[in-house]
Amino acid sequence: MTGTKRVFIKSYGCQMNVYDAERMGEALAADGYRATDSMEEADLILLNTCHIREKAAEKVYSELGRIRQLKEDRARSGGRLSVGVAGCVAQAEGAEIVRRAPSVDFVVGPQSYHRLPQLTREAVDKPGVVDIDFPAEDKFDALPSRAKPGLIARGPTAFLTVQEGCDKFCAFCVVPYTRGAEVSRPVAAVIAEAEQLAASGVREITLLGQNVNAYHGEGEDGRDWDLGRLLMRLAEIDGLARLRYTTSHPLDMTDGLIAAHRDLPALMPYLHLPVQAGSDRTLAAMNRRHTADDYRRVIDRIRAARPDIALSGDFIVGFPGESDSDFEDTMRLVEDVGYASAYSFKYSQRPGTPAAGRDEQVPEDVKSERLQRLQALLNSQSADFNKAMVGRTMEVLLEKPGRRSDQITGRSPYLQPVHLDVSAGAVGDLVQAVIRDAGGHSLVAEALEPPRAAATPELVLGGPA
Ligand code: SAH
Ligand code: SF4
Ligand code: F3S
């Protein structure tokens, strides 16, 4: 098509930003945009940003520096390049972005991106327009349906935001400010979207929320449903074989949700349950509102319900006031729990959060040393976990062509990438495979039988026996 505008979208940050980028792509596709993977070719560059740590936020400005050059070159040759900043930096900094980077034509927050097509037009006459409202209308109602293809190719796995925002206010975290108050989408809206995704070939859905297990949406019966109930309902959708959810808070692991882990074979035996720290003093200072032993007990309950469950977590080292002995408590907790994988970060002072202004900030070299020790432990746990897979039989969802032309790559129930011979099946198939080898971050497997192309949820085996 001639005359079609091309957009380049780049996302930083968490899975919710990945989801938002897809939805923004769908909104722009409905407005006549095509995707490009080259900034040089783009008519519109959209940066979907993350504010969680200083490094993430600063990346945006270095990218905007490069884009400014591109925009100036374009103008010299008589063309036009529009630049938009979306996501959590947009929400947190608003007009400050345009002041610091005048090449930005518009700024759009995570709750107003359904207005993207309209904003790109407005910005032509009024560059520097900022829309970071929390509008009364629901962006999800205003966005195009997921039945139509967007700009970002869809594979057999997809994200689906069911809950957004956070009311927990951990002392280090910007999310309650960038994403606003906790809101759950109604069950009917979630089901409709999941059905559209399943009809387009999606086999696995990961439900997203900054606090997804605090989900309490209006149910099909008019009552509040919790996440466990929502998962049960989603498992009934034809074609959906696997369900996951992320990210969870330990305080919201309700009995109903734990029961879903026991009763729902489609719910994968892998749970991301961040704890951040293992010292009660640090946890209190972080305003996490639970102790390390509370967390241990939650894990015990989950493991009792689903013995083959694997855990992942998030950790922060060097929170203000964290002593050597506090840090040793974190190491002990990691040893007690045993993680299949984990993310760990040095504490980053974020403007506007309660912890940023505290005395007792931990020196950078101490943070680095603690992070190194923690990551060494977490990496060795994850390597052990991967090694323990060798010889086991499990179901693999084939996701994409492999790096080698004779391979295809899928995911285990535990989210590990699994490489198989191309003859194992096609993208979207679920295959039973025996794990032959384990590397640092992936597994090599051999398919046992022909693929099951039309899985029904009740046939799905959660993980290795
Ligand atoms: N809602 C999730 C976390 C969302 S943010 C939860 O409650 O666990 C993702 C991760 O980023 C957090 O788990 C935390 O480990 C890390 N993080 C958040 N703020 C941070 C900060 N100021 N410095 C370093 N890491 C941070
Ligand atoms: Fe941030 Fe805490 Fe909310 Fe998670 S629970 S998003 S860490 S404030
Ligand atoms: Fe970053 Fe916003 Fe996600 S701050 S981690 S993109 S919610």
TrEMBL record:
Its cofactor is [4Fe-4S] cluster. One of its GO terms (molecular function) is tRNA-2-methylthio-N(6)-dimethylallyladenosine(37) synthase activity. One of its GO terms (cellular component) is cytosol. SUPFAM superfamilies: Radical SAM enzymes (SSF102114). It catalyses: N(6)-dimethylallyladenosine(37) in tRNA + (sulfur carrier)-SH + AH2 + 2 S-adenosyl-L-methionine = 2-methylsulfanyl-N(6)-dimethylallyladenosine(37) in tRNA + (sulfur carrier)-H + 5'-deoxyadenosine + L-methionine + A + S-adenosyl-L-homocysteine + 2 H(+). The keyword Transport does not apply. Its EC number is 2.8.4.3. PANTHER family: CDK5 REGULATORY SUBUNIT-ASSOCIATED PROTEIN 1, MITOCHONDRIAL TRNA METHYLTHIOTRANSFERASE CDK5RAP1. Belongs to the methylthiotransferase family. MiaB subfamily. Monomer. NCBIfam families: miaB-methiolase, MiaB/RimO family radical SAM methylthiotransferase. Catalyzes the methylthiolation of N6-(dimethylallyl)adenosine (i(6)A), leading to the formation of 2-methylthio-N6-(dimethylallyl)adenosine (ms(2)i(6)A) at position 37 in tRNAs that read codons beginning with uridine. This is tRNA-2-methylthio-N(6)-dimethylallyladenosine synthase. It comes from Amorphus orientalis.
